[in-house]
Specification:
Strand content: 25-35%
Mean pLDDT: 86
Distance between the termini: 54 Å
Length: 356
């Protein structure tokens, strides 16, 4: 569905009011609205109001008969209050995905294509259809230095395994989805919330580093350029001051003063370099914009591996959205990986942890 600018505002206002329990009735060029006590307190309006599609002055000098009639054009006080209220919390949306067909064979070939198990061989023991959930987060970042760069980072995690599923966000639009707004908070335990926060912190750092890499390199080049110019300037200044000491007729006090100034130049240069470092250092601020819980059918795969004489069963999840198997999670650092190593205790390790 598409809306013109004024229709977009009207659509937003109607959804906001209905989501917060208000009752609306359209009456020609206006809406008659009955608000709950909490909503009228939030918007600082009476519980019974009229919303006009046209412009209505909402100042103290307005006509008494129109004081309970509000406009919703750009800049109106009521619209600003609704926007502020809507942005005060991160919206939580629930998404149910359905598939007419789920893959039932060929998992062993898929695993062999996606994963490398070093020092181990494996085979699929069994499969089962399950329901699994993913958390889809959209976060806004602002990278500030001498200039500023901002953008969005999208992260999706499997809530059962903690795996970061990199390309799932780009493929969601291809699946049949049913959306709803979660009015009540999700009943997660403190332990799971802490785990999710660790996933986000770990992956957010990697994702933002990738996003701002060109920006960081640009600031680094400018820092090196300015440091080089600064060093050249102070080298010339030192040379000039030393030559000035060779002039005849200088008093002992003047020579002493200039020598002291020359000895202070390295400290002054160091302070200037420190100022440049602070100027071009990149500080990143991240804030969540939205969250979506995705529920989807999936296939759980029991994969049996042999590491020498030892055996280890692995649980993998086939993701019908990406049409691939979700990555496994390193048991040391928690990062998602498809190149898997095993230690003496048969813990799953990513390449970095294996090297350590």
């Amino acid at each position: 569905m598409s809306f013109k600018p004024d229709q977009e505002i009207e659509h937003f206002v109607c959804r906001f009011l209905e989501t917060h329990g208000a009752v609306l009735e359209e009456n020609g060029k206006e809406f008659e609205v009955l608000l709950s006590e909490s909503l009228s307190g939030l918007l600082k309006t009476p519980e019974h109001i009229h919303i006009n599609r046209g412009f209505v002055p909402d100042t103290p000098d307005a006509d008494p008969e129109s004081r309970h009639t509000y406009s919703i054009n750009y800049g109106s006080h009521l619209l600003e209050k609704m926007v502020n209220a809507a942005c005060a919390q991160v919206p939580l949306l629930a998404c149910q995905i359905e598939f007419d067909y789920l893959k039932s064979a060929g998992f062993e070939r898929l695993i062999n294509e996606q994963f490398s198990f070093f020092g181990a061989v494996g085979s699929v023991e069994s499969t089962a259809k399950i329901k699994t959930k993913y958390l889809f987060l959209t976060c806004r970042y602002i990278a500030q230095s001498d200039e500023q760069k901002e953008g969005l980072v999208r992260l999706i995690f499997n809530l059962e395994t903690g795996a970061h599923v990199q390309h799932m966000a780009d493929m969601l639009s291809l699946a049949a989805r049913d959306f709803k707004i979660e009015k009540k908070g999700v009943a997660w335990k403190n332990k799971q919330i802490k785990e999710i926060m660790e996933w986000i912190k770990r992956q957010m750092k990697e994702s933002i580093t990738e996003k701002i890499c060109p920006f960081q390199e640009s600031m680094t080049r400018r820092f090196r350029r300015d440091v080089s110019n600064l060093e050249e300037y102070y080298a010339s200044l030192k040379e000039e001051m030393e030559k000035s000491l060779e002039r005849p007729g200088l008093s002992d006090q003047l020579i002493k003063d200039r020598q002291e100034k020359i000895t202070l130049l390295p400290d002054e240069l160091a302070r200037k370099k420190d100022d440049l470092f602070k100027k071009y250092s990149v500080k990143v601020k991240v804030e969540p914009c939205s969250a979506m819980l995705i529920s989807t059918p999936a296939i759980k795969i029991l994969y049996k591996t042999s590491i020498g004489r030892k055996r280890k069963n692995l649980s993998l999840i086939y993701n019908p959205v990406t049409k691939s198997v979700d990555p496994l999670v390193c048991q040391e650092c928690g990062r998602s990986a498809t190149n898997i190593y095993f230690n003496d205790r048969l813990h799953l390790l990513c390449p970095a942890c294996s090297d350590r």
